[in-house]
Design goal:
alpha+beta; 6 helices; single chain; 180 residues; Aminopeptidase
């Protein structure tokens, strides 16, 4: 098993983590709970087994599967969240959050903050100095969450969704100095 996945599986106290490719159906439950939320707001294609399997191997330039952890997180034995994390992107000292999404029934209860805090602690203790991610401007709840967690916009691009509409995709970053 990928050492990064093994490390991250231990980073979330009170949660159990499995690689997404070993838990496709449970992962789809979490993602599909967000069809009228995240997916409707962003124009991203609805999750299917096929596009989920594609995402398991999707990598940014210069990264390998050894740099990626795509995890389904369980809470009290139930599928609860999905995390896609890439180490060393876009710079060697940066951790990239490709996706952090909770089952819609768990949103707004502090679970996202709990997971992000554990991820920040792990990243900081493993030498990363910053976290980066992309968030659609139309994803108001997601954008509010990331800003509340101290992430700031560093650039903006535009991306066409599966629905054909163009949306602003904001790149957000947070420094992991000792006061994070």
């Amino acid at each position: 098993m990928n050492p990064l996945i093994q490390e991250l599986q231990k980073a979330f106290p009170g949660w159990q983590a499995r690689p997404v490719e070993e838990a496709l159906d449970d992962t789809l439950l979490v993602l599909r709970s967000n069809l009228t939320g995240y997916y409707a707001r962003t124009g991203e294609p609805a999750p299917t087994r096929e596009n989920l399997l594609e995402d398991c191997g999707a990598l940014p330039p210069g990264r390998s599967l050894a740099d990626k952890a795509f995890l389904l997180l369980y809470r009290q034995g139930k599928p609860a969240a999905v995390l896609d994390f890439v180490a060393g992107y876009p710079t060697p000292e940066t951790g990239y959050i490709g996706l952090l999404i909770l089952d819609s029934a768990l949103q707004g209860q502090g679970s996202g903050q709990e997971l992000l805090t554990a991820l920040k602690d792990w990243a900081h203790s493993n030498g990363f100095i910053r976290l980066e991610l992309g968030c659609y401007e139309t994803n108001n709840p997601g954008l509010a969450f990331w800003r509340k967690m101290g992430f700031a916009e560093i650039r903006r691009t535009f991306r066409k969704g599966a629905d054909g509409k163009e949306r602003a995709l904001l790149s957000l970053a947070k420094s992991l100095d000792k006061n994070f």
